[in-house]
Amino acid sequence: MEVFRKLVSLILLFVTAVALAVTVVDDSGRVVEITSAPERVVSLSPAATRFLVFLGLEDKIVGVTDYDSYEAERVGAMVPANIEKVVSLNPDLVLMFGGFQLPEVPKLEEAGLKVLVVNPNSLNDIIRDVVLLGTIFDRRDLALEKSEKLREKMLEIGKKTYNVPPSKRPKVLYLISSPGPDVKDIWTCGMGSYLNEIISLAGGVNIASGIAGPNGWPQLSLEYVVSQNPDVIIVGVYISGTENEEIKKILNFEPFKEINAVKNKRVFAVDGNVASQPSPDVFELLDLFYEFFYGGKGE
């Protein structure tokens, strides 16, 4: 009888393992086979780490890059990947970003590692990747529940701004960081970026909405910015407590002196680490941007 019970237990374990096996297509178009829910993950992308935290999978993270705010074993730079260090952590899965990290994928695979690329460019892509990762980690029900809440947030903001005519919407400039004294061009969010989508949903008009760039991040000349005369400027800030300092840099930036946003002191700061990493956390910006556009004044 004891032998029979052990046999049944082994069969159940086998059936469970098979049931968890999934084949997915990642954001680079690669087919990835996951034979069981990963228990040890190295995240080579801070954005990917945010997805794991969002899904309550922190206990699976065994390694992150030096650029990650999450506390775990450091594996070095995002590029080039420290293959030896990653291998030493014996991960079941390595999560990566697309774009400049893609050449690292075959190197990691040659070392025998399972790699998944998470590279969302839109809010719907982010929602899709929540479900993708939830499926891979056997948290599909939770992922579906959380993804539905993200979709509801989009609808909630969209309903607030849907009937605002273009003439009543503020023109918006997003700055990845405040410009230095000798800068000639600035980086911003443009066509095809999730931040462009957030600005639009929150009721603004991105002055770079028709301009393409790498992964949706183009450069603009100062002359172009001045010609567009944005009503609101939002700047990414990466060190907590320096928000007012960064805002003042823009208010005192000579080329922007005659821009409406500066003259009316409608310059606002957001956490650049959140804004620059496509993850579920960027949905927090929908309410924040709406408040910038239709709420109080800046500093």
Automatic annotation (TrEMBL):
Cited InterPro entries: ABC_Transporter_SBP, ABC_transptr_periplasmic_BD
Recorded superkingdom: Bacteria
Residue stretches making up the Fe/B12 periplasmic-binding domain: 40-297
Family annotation (SUPFAM superfamilies): Helical backbone' metal receptor
Keywords annotated in UniProt: Signal
Regions annotated as coiled coil: none
Signal peptide per UniProt: 1-21
Any Gene Ontology biological process: cellular response to iron ion
Pfam families registered for this protein in UniProt: Peripla_BP_2 (PF01497)
The protein, known as: Periplasmic binding protein
Organism for this UniProt entry: Thermotoga petrophila (strain ATCC BAA-488 / DSM 13995 / JCM 10881 / RKU-1)
Taxonomic lineage of the native organism: Bacteria, Thermotogati, Thermotogota, Thermotogae, Thermotogales
